[in-house]
Amino acid sequence: MTEQKKIEARARRENAADLWDRLWSEPESRDWREVALGKVYNRIISYVPKGASVIDFGGGVGAFGARLTAARDNAVDVLVLDHSRAAIDIARGKGLRADYVDLEDHNSVLDAVIDGTNEGELDPIWIATEVLEHLSVEGRARLLEHISCYRDDAPGFFTVPNNCLGPEVEPQHTIQFTAMSFTRELREHFDHVRVEVLGPYLLGIVGDPAKTTASVSMCLPVRDEEADLEAVLASFRGFVREIVVGVDPRTVDRTREIAALYADVVFELEDPTCSDTTNPLHDPAVPETGCHFSWLRNQCIERCSSEWVFMTEGHERLWQGHDVLLGVGELLKEADVAYVWRRGKHQRWLFPWLARRDLRYKRSTHNIVDIPEDARRALMRDIVTFHDRDHGNAEKRSVQRKEQNKKTLWDDWNLHGNPTSLFYFAQELKPDDPEGAVEHFEDFLSCTESPAGQMRYQARLILAKLYLQLSGEDSEDGHDVLASQRLDRCAEVLHGCSAEDWSRTEHWLWLGDLAFARDQFEMAYRFYGYSGLSAGTMPATVWWVDDATYLWLPAQRLAMTCGLLGREAEALVWARRVERLLPADASVECIEEAARNVEVIEEFIAARKDQRNPVAEPVA
């Protein structure tokens, strides 16, 4: 007997009907399953329309069936098939149709389906949650082949644990699936397959629901990204046609092993520094320990087979817009490149992560897509990635930046006069040399080769913040005159922002803060009012913006200033708006503080009203 046959024989014993009868008779066992699989159930339900006929294979006590019928107002027909008679009785008690089958016996399953299906009924939707991993290799194959024989695009939904609870840990199981092994097994039986990752579970979707309008490959180059890579790949799995991962040969952690769990293609990147002098992208400023980022990204693109490529990083996961990405093909028929939102911690910016496969990246440092001037651009606001790097990797990246970025950027500016490199060089100086950063940002603004636009607006914001920082340091050192001069220059720099980019309003908020700090409350009120015009509306910009400056912060500043100016009614309007504009992930403290501020203003207004309209004392 082979080792697999031994595993299957043991699983057959561990899955005996009488054992499951006892398990299903225990309320905690029933409740645990429904809670653990709640997210999976809800995802499947989103695909099941009213009027559907559903076969819940191995459906136990009918937890999924009951949730489905409630969600569809009882306008679905559910047949629960299980080998536990105790479970069947419980399912029937919930008003569901249920029948006994031997899950491994193909004929038993066929008889139950035929008996439970009305003549002329539509082809059923097959559901199997936490079942396939209990079956033998032959049992799974017979079941999946039977489902696929209904028609080529027969819909089905199957969930299994994600790379955990294998036979050595759970004797009821015969196999431990990964996203890729599960995908491959389903593809042996179905033409259309997607596998999504829902926490600790894999959701296999086959048939009609697995079809997409998009031909999109996700790809990325990585090096030592084991801390973040799994979350990134899992977020895209099932929502793109393929995943391609290029691994830096200098990688020393488990990056390769993790990539193999989720990616269709995993390959070794060549010459990470692009040291070949015959390569058109060669940059002599890239050190031996560094990376030529565009060269690495372009290698990944070369391995992609789809019409579109979604580039990302080893620490940047798909956060929102998964279903939008599935249907992106129709939306991008008239485009060559698409900008999506990238988010960090309380910041966001647009970036052309999604582009046609014939486009490539340029620049060894701060690489960007080389977009032709006549390229058709699209804005995909509903697709959002989240940039969040492990702290240890972030520290390593910081060291790499100091070694490579400053040199490559300075050389590009000094030798080729590229103002973009001057901007980024000044940016790199900020942490360790703020005075030097100020000098080079001033050079950038005076550079005639850098036309008005979003980059100059961003340079003014950064420069103003640096002047504010240095002014504070000057004040602490007793250099009050120099501190005042820096503040004046800070305001002057901010006043020039409107000419650079009319769509953004952060500078008005900052000018308001400068005026407020100098007790110029009427001036502050006017500046805050300008910034308040954009409260709740994010600008479409490729430069990073703080969420708060376009959400609740202008309203908070206006409420505060109106209160000081004695305009309580207007202060109340803005305070209430703060409550509405706080993001969904705002801290409890922020939410409670906003509510308290509204309450305080309301009480003050009520007290003032009582003072103006005192109640007359009765005459004795």
Automatic annotation (TrEMBL):
Gene3D superfamilies: Spore Coat Polysaccharide Biosynthesis Protein SpsA, Chain A (3.90.550.10), Vaccinia Virus protein VP39 (3.40.50.150). SUPFAM superfamilies: Nucleotide-diphospho-sugar transferases, S-adenosyl-L-methionine-dependent methyltransferases. This is Methyltransferase domain-containing protein. The lineage of its organism: unclassified sequences, metagenomes, ecological metagenomes.
